[in-house]
Write a structure and sequence with these properties.
heterodimer, A: 157 residues, alpha+beta, Ubiquitin-like (UB roll), 2 domains, 5 strands, B: 723 residues, Aldehyde Oxidoreductase, domain 4, 24% strand, globular
Chain lengths: 157, 723
């Protein structure tokens, strides 16, 4: 099996995996980053969303070859202390219910705020509508993204 | 004195009034730390290291029990809720039924007992301080984990009173707080497990890793009655040595209802899933249940015409026969609803380890009682030879009451002699669900603008197994919730047909059918008699009746408040139309009404401008958690109303994933207002009561906009789209 060097949450990880093995399962089964969730395996639900060089991507659709030389950020690496503005806002707004899809939601929201620090409702709708939540936390996700934007702005000042 | 003897003393003294209806006695055996603790009641421990431990028996699946239940204790005990350490009670086969978590019943069930537990501990701590200071207990009060002397301000922390309190008798009837003095109940709290969720550390069944564990995915028979003929694993060679073993899985009866299949065991999840795709299995599909959805629909219609009802009800309860209403004045109408899947975000999974004749399993299970009842028997072992480690559930909605996943994992682990995590792919989850049944309803009524005289509801429904209708949730007054309005003569009749696919509980159970039917019909009658639909409902609800809803006033009230919030008595803007519906959910003591304001373009594109829900579930423990449930109910129900359907071709489920079983997305969610009715009534349940009235309210709005009645769901299939 080929060997790959991956940069995950700032740490270098060597893995020896089949060429076709998706990043999702490399993270979960090889490296024990289980915060990234399997939801559909087809890139439809968004539960496995991670950041690749700051951009939200479906880890079930990427392989190690593609990810080499890129910065991979998972939910575990979003902040050292759980206090990233998006995490703070998620807690303040009591977003999660069962929580299973929320790693993906949080990573998608983070990517949105990276490129659009003050998103409108419409921009949130567009960015977040590929992430499914069956508990129905959508209203809170929208509010929490606005709140995270505020927190991020205040932190910078 | 050593810790163990403390526990013995307190368990002995508590024995007089154990809350055994709520908590199994093995709570006493809990031994999680080496600090001295005082356990005045099986549900709680107050410890010298400052912790208050609360044992929770209900399963967390997103409904927030681990947030709301501790609040109730913290309130009566006067401790900071953040100081409460929540521990799930380990599974106890002898009391497993008490762990079952469904029917929106957790808060309703725990409210009194947790209050009493808190008040008991508080009273004993006060008495301990009174003895310590040699003062009258009446001059003492509690606040923030302290007993305070109101005369001189002297205070002592609870954790310094543990030894003394342990030696005191347990009061039989501790005085509860006056709800007026509540400081925590009714105030929103941060969710207890939030830090774990937002950092990805929260562990679900799907995430479990055991030493020496292997992974498995099962190729299941495409039909429930299908059998394995043979399989060919030659294509799996390309996956290399990571494919460990191929194991046949057999269907088990007695309520397990897993399918026959072949498991691919591998060194990681991905290889197991790839192997599952590459394994070629030849099936003996048999001859049973090879129907298309259109045929199921025909069979349901036919059953109404030709079958004798399997079960009938009148006002008094079960009756002997159904008498069709005849005559020119009879108003007759039909409605049809499809199968629905649960599609929780965490697909089904289970980890099992078989060793020395015993099975240990790990996973999220709504109904541990079903594990105890079904699995030992199915595997031919003693009840205590199956032990389950209960994990948080990534969405359940009724699906995770089943134990098919556990049986599969147990079989595989036994066959390979290793711990195994068996996972469903999304397609496995969609195709091997226990579905909300499909149903066809004919309702015949005689009515006029003042009320309803006769009501006869015939309900044809897909049943499982065989024509067993227990899963259809009859009872609670006939076709459950079909009638919240007083009528002179009531009848309901059930016509089961054998379902080719298994059925099970689905959020809001039979109410999701029957409230749709009843609330659309009442709207039809109001239109027929040219009466305002809100006025029509209210005038009938206010009539004398001996039937059904205990507290119709609460239903009236949500209807009125909902109408007010949507501005019912004032005309909407041009081309906008409104619809309303209500639901009484009596066993959870929940009452809800929804109103929609919509417009419908000539091409049948629906634009939802606003939705209102007025809801009364009694006293609200955690308002934000409560609102989350009402928001979730709208999302859930809109998915089913607008988009979702499980359809069959030759008995096989056609849908696989979210691309063909699509659900509501963030950008599709309409403006939503929740009106909570303030209430001093005992808390009811919030997870389900606000699900059923969504569909009829929207369909009644569509009638107002178009003059067309929606007879069949989902709307997408009837030619409507979201504008």
């Amino acid at each position: 099996m080929p060997k790959y060097t991956l940069l995950i949450n700032g740490a270098t990880k060597e893995v020896e995996v089949p060429v076709a093995m998706p990043l999702l399962w490399i993270l979960r089964d090889e490296l024990n980053y289980t915060g990234t969730k399997y939801g559909c395996g087809a890139g439809v639900c968004g539960s496995c969303t991670v950041l690749i060089d700051g951009v939200a991507q479906r880890s079930c659709q990427l392989n190690a070859q593609f990810c080499q030389g890129k910065k991979i950020t998972t939910i575990e690496g979003l902040s050292a202390d759980g206090n990233h503005p998006v995490q703070q806002a998620w807690a303040e707004m009591s977003v999660p219910q069962c929580g299973y899809c929320q790693s993906g939601q949080i990573m998608a929201a983070t990517a949105l705020l990276n490129r659009t620090p003050k998103p409108t409702d419409l921009q949130i709708d567009e960015a977040m509508s590929q992430n499914i939540c069956r508990c129905g936390t959508y209203y809170r996700i929208r509010k929490a993204i606005h709140r995270a934007s505020e927190i991020a702005t205040t932190k910078k000042i | 004195m050593k810790r163990r003897s403390f526990i013995r003393i307190s368990s002995y003294t508590a024995g007089a009034w154990l809350l055994s209806e709520v908590i199994p006695l093995n709570a006493f055996a809990m031994d999680s730390s080496d600090t001295n603790c005082f356990q005045p009641n099986p549900q709680i421990r107050v410890c010298e290291d400052g912790r208050v431990i609360l044992y929770i028996i209900k399963q967390e699946m997103g409904q927030g029990v681990i947030t709301s239940l501790p609040l109730i204790l913290a309130e009566e005990l006067d401790v900071d809720p953040e100081k409460i350490v929540i521990e799930g009670l380990p599974y106890d086969a002898a009391n497993a039924g008490k762990y079952n978590t469904y029917a929106s019943a957790s808060i309703k069930g725990a409210y009194s007992s947790f209050r009493k537990a808190g008040a008991t501990a508080r009273t004993m701590l006060i008495n301990a301080a009174a003895a310590e200071w040699n003062v009258n207990a009446e001059v003492l009060k509690t606040e923030n984990s302290k007993v305070v002397n109101t005369l001189n301000g002297q205070s002592i922390n609870y954790n310094q009173l543990i030894k003394r309190a342990s030696a005191l008798p347990v009061p039989e009837n501790p005085v509860l707080k006056n709800p007026k003095d509540f400081k925590l109940i009714g105030k929103s709290q941060r969710r207890s497990n939030i830090a774990g969720i937002v950092t990805g550390k929260a562990l679900y069944g799907f995430d479990l890793v055991l030493p020496d564990m292997v992974y498995a995915a099962v190729v299941r028979a495409p039909l429930f009655y299908g059998k394995v003929k043979k399989w060919d694993d030659s294509a799996l060679k390309q996956l290399g040595p990571g494919i460990l073993q191929i194991v046949e899985v057999t269907q088990m009866a007695g309520g397990v209802d897993n399918r026959n299949g072949v498991a691919v065991v591998a060194t990681n999840s991905w290889l197991a899933l790839r192997g599952q795709q590459l394994l070629k299995v030849e099936w003996d599909l048999g001859t049973k249940g090879l129907f298309d959805s259109t045929e199921i629909s025909q069979q349901l219609k036919q059953a109404l015409k030709t079958d004798t009802a399997a079960l009938t009800y009148d006002k008094k309860g079960k009756s002997t026969a159904f008498t069709p209403l005849e005559g020119a004045n009879v108003f007759r109408t039909i409605y049809e609803m499809p199968y629905q899947a649960h599609a929780a975000m965490e697909p089904m999974n289970c980890t099992a380890s078989y060793k020395d004749g015993k099975y240990e399993i790990w996973g999220g299970f709504q109904a541990p009682g079903e594990i105890a009842k079904i699995l030992p028997k199915a595997f031919g072992v003693a009840t205590d030879a199956v032990f389950v480690n209960l994990l948080p559930i990534g969405g359940a909605f009724g699906r995770k009451e089943k134990v098919d996943n556990a049986a599969e994992a147990m079989q595989i682990s036994k066959a390979i002699g290793k711990p195994v995590k068996m996972i469903f792919s999304r397609a496995d989850d969609t195709g091997n669900d226990f579905y909300r049944p499909a149903s066809y309803h004919q309702i015949s009524v005689t009515a006029d603008k003042t009320g309803i005289t006769d009501w006869a509801h015939q309900l044809a429904v897909t049943a499982f197994p065989g024509k067993n209708i227990s899963h259809v949730h009859h009872g609670i007054g006939g076709a459950v919730a079909d009638l919240i309005y007083p009528v002179k003569n009531y009848q309901s009749a059930f016509y089961p047909i054998e379902s080719p696919i298994p059925i099970g509980s689905w959020r809001a159970i039979g109410f999701s059918h029957n409230v749709f039917v009843a609330e659309c019909l009442i709207d039809e009658l109001a239109a027929k008699f040219k009466v305002d639909p809100v006025e029509y409902r209210l005038s009938i609800l206010r009539q004398e009746s001996d039937k059904y809803v205990k507290d119709r006033k609460r239903l009236e009230n949500v209807l009125i408040k909902c109408a007010e919030a949507i501005n019912w008595n004032h005309k909407p803007l041009a081309k906008r139309f409104r619809g309303i519906a209500c639901c009484a959910y009596p066993h959870a003591q929940g009452y809800a009404a929804h109103a929609f304001e919509i417009s419908v373009a000539p091409n049948n594109a629906i634009k939802i401008h606003k939705v209102v829900c007025a809801v009364d579930c009694g006293l609200i423990v955690d308002p934000e958690g409560f609102k989350s449930q009402i928001e979730g109910s709208l999302v859930w129900s809109l998915s089913a109303t607008l988009k979702d359907e499980i359809s069959l071709q030759k008995g096989q489920v056609q849908q696989q994933s979210f691309f063909d079983y699509d659900v509501m997305r963030l950008k599709e969610m309409p403006k939503f207002e929740i009106v909570i009715i303030p209430s001093d009534e005992a808390p009811g349940g919030a997870g389900e009561p606000a699900v059923p009235s969504v569909s009829p309210a929207l369909c009644n709005a569509i009638f107002a906009a178009t003059g067309k009645r929606v007879r069949k769901l989902p709307l997408k299939k009837e030619g409507y789209t979201m504008g």
